Hints:
This protein is mainly alpha-helical. It is built from five helices and no strands.
Amino acid sequence: xxxxxxxxxxxxxxxxxxxxxxxxxxxxxIYYQNLRGFxxxxxxxxxxxxxxxxxxxxxxxxxxxxxxxxxxxxIGQKPLHTFSDYLRVSxxxxxxxxxxxxETVEATHQNLSVIVNLERDILAMAAERDDEGTxxxxxxxxxxxxxxLWMLRAFLS
Length: 157
C-alpha cells in the first residue's frame, strides 16, 4: 500500500498538517467575519481610516481563506466548510456590537495574534515534514500579518 500522497508527502503527515490548516482556516473565517462587522459598524473620528482598513483586511483574509482551503485539497485532504465547524474549531471568538476605534483595533490585534501564533506552529510542523508548499504559503502570510500587527499596535499606542 502506498503511504505517499499524490504530491509525495507521507499520508499521515498530510492528515496532521491538514488538521492544523483546518484550524487556521476556521480561525481565519471568524477573524474575517469579525472584520466585516467592524467595517460595517465602525463609528467615531477614525471612521474613514478604519472603515477602509477593515475592508482591506477582510479582503486579504478572504484571499487567505481560499488559499488555505486549496492547500488542504492539494495535500489530499478536505477543508472544513461549515460555520458550525469553524465555531467549534476556532480559538478566535465571534464579536458583536463593537463600533469604537480602540475596541475594534484591540480585537483585531488579538484575533490576528491568534492567527500568527497558529501559523508559527504550522510552519514548524510543515518544515519538519518537508512540506515546502505549506511552508511557503504560511511563511508569506506570517510576514504580512506581523506587519499588520505592528501597525495595529502603533494605532493603539
